[in-house]
TrEMBL record:
This is Solute carrier family 5 member 8. Belongs to the sodium:solute symporter (SSF) (TC 2.A.21) family. It comes from the Eukaryota. GO terms for biological process: propanoate transmembrane transport. It is found in: Cell membrane. PANTHER family: SODIUM-COUPLED MONOCARBOXYLATE TRANSPORTER, SODIUM-COUPLED MONOCARBOXYLATE TRANSPORTER 1. The keyword Transcription does not apply.
Length: 606
């Protein structure tokens, strides 16, 4: 199938489906506002009264950072760079294990509302304030692109009104966050995960039908070099390899699941630590499902446009418009289905923004207001709701998520894993890690990696049945054409430091924070530090210790059982021996036992 120069646009049925998604999301907020009238405290509003169970929290964890970027940008990433992006499924396993075994036990035991309360308990107030400010800046910058970029992409392709989409998203998200608190956010996330999967499936199923089956799509992907899972190139300059994704990706996602307020706030809202840990492991299944859908959607995108790339042909102006373009191209004869896909994209936006709003409200109350201004619980609750209303309007348009998340991950790891790390070391490490990650991250914006380092796969327009922008320049690329890469002279730092894979920004910040923090702590008397055991990881917190303890108990029980069995056997043997040797009751075991028998007969006659 070739790209069409004319595609469909939104119709009434599509707008109706999109509006229905917004309406249901708002209705969930109203429901929890009515049933949760007893939420008189800010903790009830922000933490759901710590009464949540594992399954809804797990789905909410999945939805929180599976934004519209996942729905639109991940398939485009697979289309351009191949399915190696799917290796994030491996790093998710490491992330969930580390988060549930290292960070969750400490946070849950302390009973904190804001993650950054821990920094004051473990270090000092200055470290807490710096961590809080970094989180607020990170979240505002990150959610800017989550709201605006998808709206712009969908506007360019579907004709959906840009600011109408942005404003409606903000209004609905503000409404249910303010009305229902964390419970409304969690249950709305559950609904929105279902919408995201349904939107993906509508596109995937139609593409599979058009291309003649799943096997054809996989064959096209293999021929086009898209099934490049096992690239073990160790160069840190490569965009995506096995190592950059499994190593760098683990740091990035651990900074999200392990210490990010939006995620920690969810699993701390569970009614027990067991439910909290279960929510993380169940969430792993949700992450795999979303990843499978988004990667396969990217392979479908390549299969449909393998001979006529809409981006090269000038039909779309940016890669993130490719997915909406295909939706309007292959689903234009099915009114309502394009609306379902757009609802899926905006479900991702709503889930991410609502998580950010609730998290920002929590840290603002707990870290910036409560320590300095005495307020009653009723006033704190109303302030939490007010913050949920106003935070939406101050979003930025760029994300530096990994750059700030890396140093923060290093700081929390320092506090939880290193008992002799002191406040001086923690603050010095955090500032050093932030400087390093900002240096490489900002430098990469001025000197983006060259194509020979990021290695985009070839795209072509030779199958287009209309004149394209590429035709005007008499150029067409093939999947194996080496002339795609041209030599450009750059400064030394640009070629070796600023060209690092973006997935290494977070590890650089984390490892720098840990190294500097440990060194400064040792030099400033950290070995003399006396800590409460509850603020660091204890062996009793880990599942491995629980298994060891259970195994030891079972072995002990078995030892007791074996000893009891030996006692029983010993008694039985004694009894049997006594029975067999009794002159009146013993058995005749041989012919030589005759005298005993005669004695019994004699007694019987008497």
């Amino acid at each position: 199938m070739a790209a069409s120069p004319v595609i469909g646009s939104f119709v009434a049925a599509d707008y109706a489906v999109f509006a229905l998604m917004l309406l249901v999301s708002a209705a969930i907020g109203v429901y929890y506002a009515i049933v949760g009238r007893g939420q008189s405290s800010s903790r009830d509003f922000l933490m759901g009264g710590q009464s949540m169970t594992a399954v809804p929290v797990a789905l909410s964890l999945t939805a929180s950072f599976m934004s519209a970027i996942t729905v639109l940008a991940t398939p485009a990433e697979v289309y351009r760079y191949g399915a190696s992006y799917g290796l994030f499924s491996l790093c998710y396993v490491l992330v969930v294990v580390v988060s549930s075994e290292v960070f969750l036990p400490v946070f849950y035991r302390l009973g904190i509302t804001s993650t950054y309360e821990y920094l004051e308990i473990r270090f000092n107030r200055a470290t807490r304030l710096l961590g809080t400010v970094m989180f607020i800046v990170q979240t505002i910058l990150y959610t800017g692109i989550v709201i605006y970029a998808p709206a712009l992409a969908l506007n360019q392709v579907t004709g959906m009104d840009l600011w109408g989409a942005v404003i409606s998203t903000g209004v609905v998200c503000t409404f249910y966050c303010t009305m229902g608190g964390l419970k409304a956010v969690v249950w709305t996330d559950v609904f929105q995960v279902g919408i995201m999967v349904a939107g993906f499936l509508s596109v995937i199923i139609r593409a599979v039908v058009l291309q003649g089956g799943v096997s054809n799509i996989l064959n096209h992907a293999e021929f086009g070099g898209r099934l490049n899972f096992w690239d073990f190139d160790a160069s840190p300059l490569r965009r995506h390899t096995f190592w950059t994704i499994t190593f760098g990706g683990t740091f990035v996602w651990t900074s999200i699941y392990g210490i990010n307020q939006a995620q920690v706030q969810r699993y701390i809202s569970c009614k027990s630590m067991t439910h909290a840990k279960m929510s993380l492991y169940i969430n792993l299944l949700g992450l795999w499902v979303i990843m499978l859908c988004s990667v396969f959607a990217g392979l479908c995108l390549y299969s449909v446009y393998k001979h006529c790339d809409p981006w090269t042909a000038g039909m779309v102006s940016a890669p993130d418009q490719l997915m909406p373009y295909m939706v309007m191209d292959i689903l234009r004869d099915y009114p309502g289905l394009p609306g379902l896909f757009v609802a899926a994209a905006y479900s991702g936006t709503l889930s991410t923004v609502s998580s950010s709003v609730n998290a920002l409200a929590a840290v603002t109350i707990e870290d910036l207001i409560n320590p300095y201004i005495h307020m009653s619980e009723k006033h704190l609750s109303w302030t939490s709701k007010g913050l949920s209303e106003c935070i939406i309007s101050i979003r930025a348009a760029i994300s530096i998520f990994g750059i700030i998340g890396g140093p923060l991950l290093g700081l929390f790891s320092l506090g939880i894993l290193c008992p002799y790390a002191n406040a001086t070391g923690g603050l010095a490490g955090l500032l050093s890690g932030l400087v390093m990650s900002l240096w490489v991250g900002i430098g990469a914006q001025f000197y983006p990696p060259l194509p020979e380092q990021s290695r985009p796969l070839g795209l072509t327009t030779h199958g287009c049945n209309f004149k394209t922008a590429a035709d005007a320049f008499n150029w067409s690329a093939s999947p194996t054409e080496p002339s795609l890469y041209t030599t450009v002279l750059q400064p030394f730092l640009a070629e070796n430091w600023y060209s690092l894979s973006y997935l290494y920004f977070s590890p650089i910040g984390t490892l720098t924070t840990l190294a500097v923090g440990l060194l400064v702590s040792l030099l400033s008397g950290g070995m003399k530090l006396k800590l409460e055991p509850r603020v660091t990881l204890m062996k009793e917190d880990t599942m491995l210790f629980s298994f060891y303890k259970l195994f030891k108990e079972r072995v002990s029980d078995m030892s007791v059982s074996i000893n009891n069995l030996q006692d029983v056997l010993s008694l039985s043997t004694t009894f049997l021996y006594s029975f067999s040797s009794h002159p009146y009751l013993g058995h005749e075991t041989s012919r030589k036992a005759g005298p005993h028998k005669k004695q019994r007969e004699h007694i019987w006659k008497q």
